[in-house]
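User: Hi! I'm working on a homework problem where we have to compare a predicted structure to a textbook description. Could you give me the structure for the chain below?
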Amino acid sequence: MILRRALAREVLLTSFAVTAVIFCIFVVVRVLGFLRQAAEGIIPVDSIFVLLFLKVIAYMDVILPLMMFVAMLLVLGRWSRQNELTIMAASGLGLSHLLRPVVFLILVGALIVGSFSMVVGPMAVRSVGAIEHELKSRTDIVGVSPGVFMETQAGRAVYFVEQLNKENGRYEGIFAWGSDAGREGVVLAQSAHRHTDPEKGQVFLVLENGVRYEGAPGDSVYRVINFERYTLRDRSTMAAPVKYPLHGWETTRLWRSGGPHEQKEIAWRISKIVVLPILMMYALGLGRVAPRSNRYVS
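Assistant: Happy to help. Predicted structure tokens:
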């Protein structure tokens, strides 16, 4: 009984430790990519940690079975090097004595992996898709980082903000270029702020103390307009509905669809659960090593 509890406890603790290491590596790699996108103005800075958290959740159903397999190998390998398995064998207890805690670990792991594979993971994928779709459909300057030129998704406007006053939420040193119907316009303003119509919910960008240059390329005649207050409506393109990939669909929706691609996705989700007992039993056989032999090789 003591050996069984010790095995279950050490495998769980080692799984947490290995998962934490892999999690840190994953976070570092993904954060660098998100920071690059934020510097280019593709995503706002305040969305980095939300996207990072959702990305981690989406991959947990793949990470957890591998981590439990590695944890089982590490624990049994250490027990073998410290002759604990030899003492068990001398006492008449073989590896079959450890089947009960292994089955317990398989049941707990299958429950967790199944919840991530069937429910939580697809939900995270849908959340990531919704956020990315919203960011792609934006045409305002919400994602602009100070000192970085940003081109809108439609490619019809370029914004530049010299700096952002976080205390009052005002932009300072605004440059904006836009093209519409063959005419181009450049707006320079000392400051700007965002205003939301409380009745209609429309968002406006209010520029203050600036000048607007408007004309057609190649034309020597340009209009120059000096203004104290210039209001631009924040127009968002009519984006199509979000189309989630199959691995973001709800499991019940996949069952109802019944197509070959949907069945393949269901099989992939189930395989993440089925592979766990296979890996655990495989680790149970590989964990025992003979004295003075290579590690994990019988």
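For your comparison, note the following. The chain has two domains: 2-138+245-286, 150-233. The two ends are 27 Å apart (CA to CA). Good luck with the assignment!
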